[in-house]
Amino acid sequence: MDVALARTFLEIAQSGSFVAAASRLNITQTAVSARVRTLEDQLGRRLFIRNKSGARLTPAGERFMRHAITFLQVWDRARHQVGLPEGRTDVASVGAEMSLWNPFLSDWLVWMKHQAPEIALRADVDIPSRLLDRIHDGSLDLAVLYDPPPQGGNAVVELLTEEKLVMVTTSTAPNPELGDEYVHVDWGPLFHSSHQAAFPQLGSPAVQISHGPLALLYLTRVGGTGYFRLSAVAPYLEADRLHIVETAPQFSYSVHMVYSTLTEPALIDRMRQGFLVSSSLPSARVA
Predict the structure, then answer these.
(1) Helices and strands per DSSP (H, E), number in the chain
(2) 0.70 exceeded by pTM
(3) Are residues 139 and 217 in the same domain?
(4) Which is deepest, 30, 83, 170, 278, by most CB within 10 Å?
(5) Could you give phi then psi for residue 74, rounded to 5 degrees?
């Protein structure tokens, strides 16, 4: 079986659409259809039922799913192993969503460099949906995500750490005004819903920033109020540059590791150990 055929099959199965698969793979819909026909001819079974709403797997397609995933995992592992730099015994492929690369991914890379120098490292920063797709198709060993949805199949979701999102301000007033000086940081859908319930009067803030480090840099330069991870603002609190708004609610910020049970257990255990240890160590956190 051709690797491109397996990837195309999985893209369609995950997106539920030939059109969406073509967009993700950056090829034409005609090419996608041709690949599916080739794969179905090789297997002697129809894999998809197409309708106006997209495409769904046939029973044969459902049975083929796990074999396609395993095939891609074996292929990617073989490709990485063959291309290992001299002196390396394995390769660890890891990803993190944008708001988590610092400190979790950066601290893990440093820990692995010192504690597991025999392992080659591959790191990516991407949106959660693509990271989860790569976990399921076997091209990524482990991803660090904020509050991922429940995963089925062979994916394991494990809590890495849980800290608080606290409201901080540059103002010395105990209850600062949450008007034009308020900076809304996107900490994910769970935070958004809780925040909206706690502050219905805010409406649409004048300043909205999706990246924590950028938002904190902005806040410390121009002043204002916003929610940030407690560990990130600790140095500013100690230096009296920021102050916690004691009357404001605090929200949970859960960070999880998502990995596949099909990946070599010894490698996953080493990667998990690195994240668990490095996430508990002091670091130069910026948001």
Answers:
(1) 10, 11
(2) no
(3) no
(4) 278
(5) -65, -40
